[in-house]
């Protein structure tokens, strides 16, 4: 009986030598691409049994030019948004019989380029790519266009010629504005990421457009831009407090920003929604467990991950065709963080307006 602990694993070359045939004959026989005389097949089978030869499925996949693994590059695995996205990609990939190599880029361009290079060297069959910063020097776009087997999710990489899937960021801003307006708010603060990010342009643009269309022109009277992090949310909230709470409502463009704002407000004794109403965006964190439960624009994160895998498996579009860019719908989840402005809020707004005159 062959040893399972110290014996050297037998190779296809060992089987071929024992059966007195070529390595190519053994390979084609095992792949069922060659019909052999019964006596030759019996010699190969006997050699396989004697040597306890076991095929290496990974090596076979590589010989066929595939790994049956796709890569997923995300900025931060600890963020609930990206964790939910990763889970949906894993589930969708499994339905195609694929594994997923999860790569956390820490939102660093150098690490993103490293993972794209792994795709170029055929270490994965394709890549779902998510960034959370702008490609100002074009290096990401050049690399993505070079390797091509990529689907971009969530944030755009301008200039890339690959399929893309985003949520409808403009609709997200519109839904927030319409909910605030329906309850009497006319002065809104916006807290989001950098102004050159597609998510910020859409969410702030949709918010502003809906306010203008409803006669609240210029109603975004306080805005700050940074990262989609709780740290940025805390810093922006402190500035908002120091400015005298200049808006009656806040649209925080991610769950993480909203959580940071709520933390800073709690420490300063600012009440949501009595002093300031608030809407978040993403709805991947357990916002229903907060006090008060936070109204949010829900992104279709799971649908985004699933669609990304489907587009990756569909392969490149026909030559000359434009790769698709899909927008997935969003919805507002109403909870308890928005209410009509209280009398003290009206008095605060009037006093600030008089002070600015």
Could you describe the 3D structure shown?
The protein contains 13 helices and twelve strands. By secondary structure, the protein is an alpha/beta fold. The strands form two sheets. It has a six-stranded parallel sheet with strand order 2-1-3-4-5-11, with helices on both faces. The longest helix has 16 residues, at 80-95. The protein starts with 11 loop residues before the first helix and ends with a helix. Residues 1-6 and 61-65 have low confidence and may be disordered.
Structural class: alpha/beta
| Biggest pleated sheet | 6 strands, parallel
Task: Please report the number of helical segments.
Answer: 13
How much strand content do the residues show? Answer: 15-25%
| Overall average residue pLDDT | 90
**Shape, per Cα inertia axes:** elongated
N-end to C-end Cα span: 94 Å
Query: Which H/E pattern describes the elements?
Result: HHHHEHEHEHEEHEHEHEHEEHEEH
* Order of adjacent strands in the largest pleated sheet: 2-1-3-4-5-11
Rg over C-alpha atoms, rounded to the nearest angstrom:
28 Å
The overall strand count is: 12
How much helix, percentage-wise, in residues?
40-55%
Low-confidence stretches are 1-6, 61-65
